[in-house]
Amino acid sequence: AQIDHDCQKLTEYYHALGFLDARVSRELTHSADHRYVTVTFFVWEGPRYKVGRVQISGNRTFPEKKLLEYTDLRENGWYDRHTISADLKRIRDVYGYTGRAVGVREEHPEPEKGTGIVHVHYQVMEAPQTRVGDVIIEGNVVTQDRVIRREITLYPGQILSYPDLLAAEANLSR
């Protein structure tokens, strides 16, 4: 079961680097006394895909052109899932600083076989702007409220900045 899991992880690794057709298989060869086994992984990479078109949809608050300025994935560049993950985080942060929690995911249609091109589509699911309500601190036995409030820069009535909320959580966990 572990070896099959390793095959799956290797396949995901190659897919993340743009080898979307990559396949990984394995072969087990036992020693004569059956005490040892040799594991051989066979990797077929296939072509490495380039990005054809990058588009963003579902966005109503910001124009697509503005959001594309926050992305690093470019047309004719290699498809790279790590770059896509960073793009998704930056798009979430752009909305998050305006008090909107959004869902953003990458959707790409099946690449056309033989073209080496895949079109990448970022789908944004917008939510309405949020404001901070009451800031309630519970469970602090040792630390005084004023010390904790100094570490969280959130005040009732202000627009909730989601990246600042995450920073406040990180500050409190130190």
Produce the secondary structure layout.
Elements lengths: L1 H15 L6 E8 L6 E8 L5 E8 L6 H5 L12 H16 L6 E5 L9 E9 L19 H7 L10 H12 L1
Parallel strand pairs: 3-5
Antiparallel strand pairs: 1-2, 4-5
Describe what is shown at a glance.
The chain is α+β, with helices and mostly antiparallel strands and 174 residues long. It has 5 helices and 5 strands.
In percent terms, what proportion of residues is strand? 15-25%
Poorly predicted parts: none
The strand count comes to: 5
Question: How do the strands line up in the largest sheet?
Answer: 3-5-4
Q: What is the overall pLDDT average?
A: 91
> Measured on Cα atoms, how large is the radius of gyration?
23 Å
What is the overall silhouette? flat
Distance between the termini: 39 Å
Helix content estimate: 25-40%
Please describe the structure with a list of short key phrases separated by commas or semicolons:
174 residues, alpha+beta, two-stranded antiparallel sheet, 5 helices, 5 strands, 22% strand, flat
